Structures are given as structure tokens and as C-alpha cells.
Amino acid sequence: MTTVDSSTTFGTIGRGIAVFEDTELVEGTTVWLDTPDAVMDFVERDDVENCIVIARGGTTTFLTPALVAGPRGVLTLQGAPTSHLGIVSREYGIPCIMSVAFSVGETNARGEVVPADGTVVRLDITGAPVGRVLAQNARGAEEVPHAADDEPDAVLVPVDTRGVPGGTAGHEIMLGKMSTGVLNLTDESLIRELTNEEANDLLDYYGWNLWDILAARISEGESGLIPRQEYEVMGTYLQWQHHPRFHRMITDAVGVDGLREIGGRIRNEVGTKLNPLHIWAAGVPSALGRSIALDLGHEKPGDRTEDLKGAMQFTRRLYRGMWNDQGPMFLSGRGYHAPLLGSEWVDRFIADRTPLAKDPQARKDFQRFNGSTQLASFLLHFDCRNGVADTGPYPLPGGGWALVRDHVLNDPGYPWADAVRDLPWSVTLVLFFEGEQQISSSVVDIGTMFTTPSNYLKHLTGYAVYVRERSDSPVSEIRLLREDELAPLAAKAEKGAAQLYPRIAAMSDREKILAGSYVYYTDFVGTVGKAAGIWDDMLAAGFYDFQDSVDRGYGPIVEEGRAMEMLGRFWSAAEGMDHV
Asked: What is the pLDDT of residues 244-268, one digit of tens each?
């Protein structure tokens, strides 16, 4: 990245949360992007690499073309480092400060203070998590040259409304509150119906678990491209209305042991949507959809108890196969580690490893591939993680560990996937962090890895990349990509995203919300139905016959503007998980 002489005294005009830490300051001119048209116009400029883009929200897809074009830095008025934009800017290595409160700038029609376009600013992320935006000769700026005096604990983090912390400490507290052992996947508990006490214990844990993995990301704010909060609420509502019928249909077709076998496939293949996210999402969002239905007055707490318990057992049986033991259900009960693949895969990865050359360009090229394919996957899946999955850490024989990450790039089941028809189904990236590096990692239940320090790619020592051409390609046909294949495939991913972005931008808000709901609704049980071999039967049974439910839910959720309020209450607090 281009840096500047840090000895020059600039004044602080804004403070926020840095996505990652770096020892160098970055300088560029500001450009405010508040509409998809503004983003598309921006990438046509010939000075993109000299610009610091400013956006309102912390979502990824809104800035897709801008991120691909390679700006010098990113600033947002909303959002947190664990948001999708924070994650992708980290993958690209683009300095990013989120939730910036500017003290100097122009006030727009919405009352937001934003530096005028063309303002020369410096991003100081040396004191992460505090990030500072500096400008020279700015009236009203604080004349403080460095961020060292800022207190990191001034950064706001989500707080569980019950006072329960996140992480392993929170898991232990929640475990202590339970009257049953429902979190353990005992064989006996999988072949019967759950008791009310077990269901209520699981509902309480679901509430905390949702907060633990999603609350920080919920704060990402507005997209500017996709109304994601609205479709998240709508999509989970539709799941509860219809998925229990298909839970039963799949279970009737393959049985309890068949569900365990499907869950177990996660341990034997890569480049698949059978992963921790889809196991979690096969059942947990149904409970959330129930909360939404209750809040809308469409149901009462005692209604459809059988459906709720069935959804819980559906996902518990899949988890039992995934872990292949009778221990805790969630990653939060296993130290946030998910080294799921067998040793034969790890041995193959090690044998196929490409050492990362000391040449900075080699690292930059790999980061581009990682960022471009991940961004294309986010856009294809309407700004959700349905196409991105991490597992690990996998300990390495000589010390250190490896991360395995799938990027699904072309799911032909989506009506808009023709825009990415030239891409393979998926790529799998194996990232090596070898030796005695001081870098720790954790994987949350939706299959996202976070590290300390957050700019983990700085410590990358090697990689291997594999391609799976189709979703049904045999595991034996998953092949290693050569080094010289990475750049062309990254370019294809960028081209696909460039074709898809204006298509999404041209949709009405209703079309976008229903498309995002379609992604949730399809993937969260369809993935298991396809693995069970009964997807065509599910379609014939009316899988997509949900228009009546859309008609009932769309008005109060979207048109009455209740989505954001519900998202805050149900995704970040346990109050939505009403007991049976």
C-alpha cells in the first residue's frame, strides 16, 4: 500500500473502529458513495487507486465494484469489523475504518457529517481497534498526530441483554442455567421427541447463540444495494411457515441414521454447501421464524410445538453426524474449533502446498484471488454467507495450523446465476500459518473464522487451491489449481460480479427482498434435501408454494417497517425465543 510521512501533523476529523492494525498511515482523497449508480460511476475513474471511499453502511455487496477496483482505503458511517464488509476488506488487505463519527465535513440531507469529495485524508490504524481519520488544515480538527492515546475500550461492542458474555465463558454460564443435557448429542436423545424442558433449554441457548455469532454483524447498517435486514426477517419467517413439513419429508425418506450420514459427509469432502452453517441453519432459524410469527400475532406460543421440536431434532441429528461423537452440539461448546476434515485431506493439503514467496506481489496476487472469489460469492448469495464456509484450525506437523475455506461461485439454482455461468461451482482455499506465529483463531457456528490479530493474511506462509466444477462433481474430480490458473479465475469472478451488480441494482426493493428470502429459504433445507436425494420430490410437493405466506408477512415485516426492530430484539437478545 502507498504510505506517507507520518511526521507531518494532521488533525483528527473522525474516529471509528479499525478492521485490522497496520503500522503505516495511508493517504488518499475522499469519495462519498451513497447509491449503486455512484459506485458504478466511481469504478470508471482513472484514479481509483488514489481514493478513500466513504459509504454509509457496513455491508459488502454495495461496494462490490469499488472493492474489486482497488481503492486505497474504505470508511463507513455504520458497521463493525465482524460485518461482511469488514471481513472482505480484511481479505483484500484494504485499510478500513468503520462506524466513523466525523467532527469535520459537510452535513448532508440526512444530517450525516461527511468530508467533502476530494478531501485529502490519512487513515491511522496503528492503534487498532481505534481508527482515526486525519486531515491537514481542517477547521475544527483535533491537532493530535497519533492514535496511541486513544483507549481501545472506548469501542462499543454488543452486550447480551441478560448480561451473559460471548465466547466460552458465556457458553459455560448458559450451560449452568440448563436443567437438561440437551446440548449433548446422545444417541438416546436422537431417536425420540424432545421434552418441553429440553426444548425450552435449547430455545434459551439458541437466543444466546444467535447473539454470540450475529449481534456484532447486525450493526453493519444499511446496504444501499440489498435490503438485507428485511429479507433476513422475511426469509426466517418463511422457513418457519414451511420447512417443518420438509424436515419430516427428508427424515421419512432417510431416517435418523440417514441424517447422521448426511451430516457426516462434511468430514469427507470440500467444495460443498454441507458445512457448519447449513447444519446450524437447518433448524435454528425455524425457531427464530416462530418468534416472528408469534410477534406478528399469527400464532400462539402453544401452537405447532411438534414442528418446533422436529426442527430441533432435525438439526441435532445432522450435528451428530458432523461431529461423529455424542458431545456438545455447537462449536461454542467445543472451544470454537472445527477441524472437521479427516487426516487424509490434511495430508493431501500439505502435499499440495505452494510456499508463499517473499515477493510481495505473490502475496498480493493470492489476496486478490481470495478477495475476488469471496466477494463474488457474497454477491451471488445476496450479501449472506451461504456460499462461504471456514473449517479449522487444522494443526500442522511442524507447528502452526491451516484454515480451509470454501467459496461457492455458481449455484445454478438461483434465477440470477446466469450472470456467473462461466464460473465453476466452487473453489476451496487452504491457507497455511506455519511455525511459532502468535496468531490465534476461532470459528463461530455459522462457519466464519476470526483471528487475533485480525490481519491474519500478513502471516500466511503457503496455500493450496482446489476447484469443484459442479455441485455434483465426484470428490475424486476435485482438482488442484496451478499457480498460473489463479489470476484468470480471479478475473472471471470479478467479471461475474460486475455483470451481477447492475442486475441486482435494477431490481425493485420488493424483488430484492424476495430474492434474498429465496436464498435463505432454499439453502437452509434444500441443501439437506439434495444430499438426501429427494430434491425433485420436494419441488413436486410444492416447496416454493409460499405466496400466501409472503402475502401475510410482507406487509407487517416490510411495509410497516418492523424488520429492523425485530432484528434488534430477536437476533441480539433471548426475548424472542418464547418457551413452549
From this structure: 999 999 999 999 999 999 999 999 9
Is the same domain home to 184 and 303?
A: yes
Structural domain including 123 reads 10-136
- Looking at the domain assignment, is residue 59 inside a domain? yes
Give 335-379 pLDDT, tens digit per residue: 999 999 999 999 999 999 999 977 788 888 999 999 999 999 999
Q: What are phi and psi of 80, to 5 degrees?
A: -135, 160
CA distance 460 to 453: 12
> Residues 426, 308: one domain?
no
- DSSP structure string for 448-512: -EEEESS-GGGG--EEEEEEESSTT--GGG-EEPPHHHHHHHHHHHHHHHHHHHHHHHTS-HHHH
Closest of 568, 518, 563 to residue 230, by C-alpha: 563
Question: Positive or negative, the Cα torsion across 75, 35, 564, 13?
Answer: positive
pTM: 0.93
**Is the CB of residue 553 less than 8 Å from the CB of residue 232?**
no
Extract the C-alpha cell encoding 570.
430477536
Task: State the burial class of residue 353 (Cβ atoms within 10 Å of its Cβ: 0-12, 13-18, 19+).
Answer: middle
| Whole-number Å distance between alpha carbons of 121 and 132 | 10
Residue 18, φ and ψ in degrees, nearest 5: -75, 135
CA proximity to 317, closest of 543, 531, 522, 173: 531
What's the CA gap between 398 and 432, in Å, rounded?
11
Task: Provide the domain count of the chain.
Answer: 3
Range with the largest mean pLDDT of 227-231, 284-288, 531-535, 561-565 = 531-535
Element (H, E) at 272: none
CA distance 229 to 510: 13
Mean predicted confidence (pLDDT) in 200-228: 84
